[in-house]
Every structure is written in C-alpha cells, then in structure tokens.
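Lab manual, section 2.4: Encoding a predicted structure.

Procedure: take the sequence of the chain (348 residues), apply the prediction step described in section 2.3, and record the output as structure tokens. A sample record is shown.
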Amino acid sequence: MKLYQRIMSLSLAILLLLSLAACGQRPDIPDTSSTAPQGDAQELVPTDPPSPPEAVQTRFAALKGPTAMGLVHLMSTPGIGEHWTFTLAGSADEVTPALIKGDLDVACVPANLASVLYNKTEGGVVCLAVNTLGVLYIVENGDEIQSVADLAGKTIVSAGKGSTPEYGLRYLLSENGVDPDKDVTIDWKSEHSECVAALASGAATVAMLPQPFVTAAQNKLEHLRVALDLTAEWDALDNGSAMITGVAVARRAFAEEHPETVEGFLQYYAQSVDWVNGNPAEAAELIAAYGIIESAAIAEQALPHCNIVCLTGQEMYEKLSGYLQVLSEAAPEAVGGALPRDDFFYGA
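Recorded output:
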C-alpha cells in the first residue's frame, strides 16, 4: 500500500509539472519575445486592436503565470510588435537585472519585489498598476474548514516559506485569533507539487495552494475542495488594503521621458484585462499559445479565480500601500528594508 501511494504521489507531481507553468516556480521553458501567438491561436487575435500612442520602442516583460494572463489580448494585437515587444520569463531573477540595467522598460513582477526594486534603485522604479490580486487558497480533502478559525489544530502543507505566502497566511491567522506559531502546524514544502502529492497520498488533508495549481489539483483529486479564498478572507478584514500578487512597474526615467506611452499602455492594459476576464475560453487559448500556462483547459478553469485586475492611481495606492505595510511589519526585508515613499505610486 505504501509503495502504491508513493507511486501515485510521484505520478501526480510529474503530471502537474508537465501540465502548467507554476506560480513562483521556474518552468523549463525558454523566454519568448512575443508579438503574436502561433498556430490556430492566430484566429483569436482581436479585430479591434489599439495602436501605440507614440512611436517609442518599449520593452515589456512578464512572468509566466497569472501575472501575465491579463496581457494576452494586448500582446496578440497585429502590428503591436513594431514598437512594443513582450518577453515572457520563468522567474523574477530573469527580469529584475534587465530592468535595473535599463534593458527593459516595463515589467510585471511580484508586489513585494516592486518595493525591493524601488529601494535597491533608490527610487528608480515606479509602480504603474496592480495586475493580480491574491491567488492563494486553502484546499481540503474533507469538509471541516469553513472559516480561518477552523484552521486551529490543523496541519497545513504549503510552499513559500520566507516569502509572501507565509507572511500573508500568518497575518490572516493572527487577525482571526489563531496563533500561527502555537495553534497550527505549517509543513513547508519546497514546491507546490509536493503539497498536492501529500494530499494525494493522504499524508495531508489541508494545503495552501495558488492558482492555477488549485485547478490542476482538483482535476486530479476528485474530492479536493476549495475551503477558503484567502483574498476574500483578507477583504473581510476591511483594513483598506488587499492581498496582492503582482504589479506592473516601470523605470522612472522611462516613465518621465515617455508619459504618453505609459498612459497609453495603462489604457490598453485595462482593456486587455477586461477582454481576458470577459472571454475566458478565447483568452485561455492565447494563454496556452504563449506558454503562460501550458494547458488551455486548466487556464480556462483557473481564470475566474486568478483575480486579474488593472488597478491604477489612488485605488492602486490604497490597496498596495496597505499590503506592503503588512509585509513590512512581518518582515522588513520582504519589501527591501523600508516602505516605498509616495513617489513610488505612479499617478496616485
């Protein structure tokens, strides 16, 4: 029996790694400079594309996963590559050096990393928009967890120790009267696929997972259910902030030199996000065509739960500043040692 469980766990982990590009993990897919998808997805290119407002060569980058999903309508615009180029990367480590050196102009990165970059460059980076709210969920093989308080006494398997998933979970537990050090056990894994394997083998019954891993896991585990949406739980605290996964940032020098391009990008980005959220089947095909998530079926199922947005100006400031404040109080190094000043928030 133990041997069977191990085989099933290993098989599931392999299937998951092959089925999607992981949030926060490095898929073995080369970076892609993209202007339009290939193959049958060409038919899905929008028929009413925007045009760049300035003939300025602008270099964009995004990480494969939810933070890139909202871009696909814009990326697939015919002719957009004449002035705007898009690169998809497997990890933030591939993006941040290029942004700092000036080889990129705009990048979609994790929210806390934006603050780290602001501090590292001494204010040389500005945040243009929040592009992804929380993508973390508590899943359960069972029906015992109906609230955060119900996590008391449980063991939660999760990946992301020492990063924003841990800080967010600890904050939500504490705010709901659950001591994260005494009342629960958090079993940290190195990868999300390990958490799913533990659920599959019966070694765990509760896990914290991001999308699209939640969707992929539910496709493999018949009785796995979403017990808690941690974004909704954060919102329920009504603290004026939001749980945030990703943002779009720009080099300050570029934003100041080309404000029309930045404003045009934000306008078209918002339209792209609206199209993606309103057309999940078509968007999923583009997402798969670009290799953002390899399975169109999983992308379509996951999209409604990925909380893709385009929040700018004052709304961005209120939600992001509050979120960074929470992270700073938990671990100052998570935001680069200090909270960014108001000039970090473009247009706020």
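Check your result against the sample. Residues 1-36, 38-47 have pLDDT under 50 and may be disordered.
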